[in-house]
Structure formats: C-alpha cells, structure tokens
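Bumping my old thread because nobody answered last time. Still need a sequence for this structure:
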C-alpha cells in the first residue's frame, strides 16, 4: 500500500475490473463510461478507488476532446497539414488507455501524464 495515495490497494477485484473497463472504454466510447461510473459512485466513500480512477479517465477523455477540437482548427488553418496528428494522438491515447487499464486491474491508481484535472 502506498502511503501517498490511500486508494491504492484497498479496492476489491470487482472495483478493479470496473476501473479497468472504465479506462479501456475510452478507446471506443470516449468520456461516456467514465462519466456514468463516476456519477453512480461519487457519493459512495467505500468506492474510493473506483471514484478516483473514473475521475482520472474522465479528465483524460475531456483533455483528448479538447486537443481533438484544437487539431480540427489547426487542420483547417493549415489546409490539412496537421491532419496526420489525429492518427498520432489516437495511437498515443490507445497506448495510455491500455497502460491505465492494466494498472487499474492491478489495483494501482494510474495518473495520465498529460490530463487537465478538471473534475476533482
């Protein structure tokens, strides 16, 4: 158990599995699943790990949405020169979703390296 984050290691297997699926769902469904999981569990103190990981996944997905919108503008301004960045961002996001899902399944609280922490 990590003393700096009390949610690490205290999650049961069901919560770890849901947290993993919450992270992995971002690949296909974006912020919808993390938002639903967070809203369902936000008032349940015994679900600390699940709340933490759903907020983290939600924040990352919101950050991705913002970056994608900025890329749309950049692509229009540069007449399509920025369009390869969509693929690069997509691949990077999938890698982070998988890393986060695996960490959550082990009961480790994962923090995405670049995510605006809008939901606290």
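Sorry it took so long. Here it is:
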């Amino acid at each position: 158990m990590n003393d700096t984050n009390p949610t690490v290691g205290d999650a049961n297997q069901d919560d770890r599995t849901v947290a993993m699926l919450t992270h992995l769902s971002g690949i296909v469904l974006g912020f919808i699943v993390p938002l639903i999981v967070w809203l369902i569990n936000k008032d349940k103190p015994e679900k600390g790990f699940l709340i933490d990981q759903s907020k983290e996944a939600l924040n990352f997905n919101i950050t991705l949405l913002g970056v994608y919108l900025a890329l749309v503008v950049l692509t229009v301004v540069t007449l399509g020169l920025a369009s390869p960045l969509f693929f690069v961002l997509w691949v990077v996001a999938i890698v982070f979703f998988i890393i986060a899902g695996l960490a959550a399944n082990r009961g480790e609280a994962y923090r995405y390296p670049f995510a605006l922490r809008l939901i606290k």
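The mean pLDDT is 91. Let me know if any region looks off to you.
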